[in-house]
């Protein structure tokens, strides 16, 4: 009995879990509700503008429109120094970090991942989002 509980717990951690998005902090950080507890999630592999930086409002607005109040799949990877869960977040099997970078609303965070460099180059070449000097 203990083995099966442990096995299913480990499998669910590997496969991720479903949570409801409560709030968008900025273009790379969200608050979710999981098992009646609020968690802060840092989107893996990306970096979005901070509050006093250009494009902050637009980046936050786009992420809000995309996932706020929706159920998402969370794939926890590790905790950062601020005790946030650094995670991959999916909406209907679509990677939200990829969406944010490919559309120019965040940049690939090369220090931690190479996953989204192609998406960033795509956004740069198409002059999307923060790469559009007209914005």
UniProtKB/TrEMBL annotation:
Q: Which SUPFAM superfamilies match?
A: Staphylococcal nuclease
Which residues belong to any copy of the TNase-like domain?
Answer: 15-133
GO molecular function list: endonuclease activity; hydrolase activity
The membrane-spanning stretches of this chain are none
Alphabetized, the UniProt keywords read: Endonuclease, Hydrolase, Nuclease
State a single Pfam family of this protein.
Answer: SNase
The record's annotation in InterPro entries points to: SNase_OB-fold_sf, Staphylococal_nuclease_OB-fold
Q: What is this protein called?
A: Thermonuclease family protein
From which organism does this entry originate? Campylobacter californiensis
């Amino acid at each position: 009995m203990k083995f099966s509980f442990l096995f299913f717990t480990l499998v669910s951690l590997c496969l991720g879990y479903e949570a409801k998005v409560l709030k968008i902090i900025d273009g790379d950080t969200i608050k979710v509700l999981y098992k009646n507890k609020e968690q802060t999630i840092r989107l893996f592999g990306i970096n979005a503008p901070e509050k006093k930086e250009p494009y902050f409002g637009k980046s936050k607005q786009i992420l809000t429109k995309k996932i706020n109040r929706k159920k998402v799949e969370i794939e926890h990877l590790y905790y950062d120094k601020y005790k946030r869960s650094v995670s991959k977040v999916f909406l209907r099997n679509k990677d939200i970090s990829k969406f944010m970078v490919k559309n120019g609303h965040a940049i690939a965070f090369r220090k931690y991942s190479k996953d989204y460099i192609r998406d960033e180059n795509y956004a740069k070449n198409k002059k999307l989002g923060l790469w559009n000097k007209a914005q």
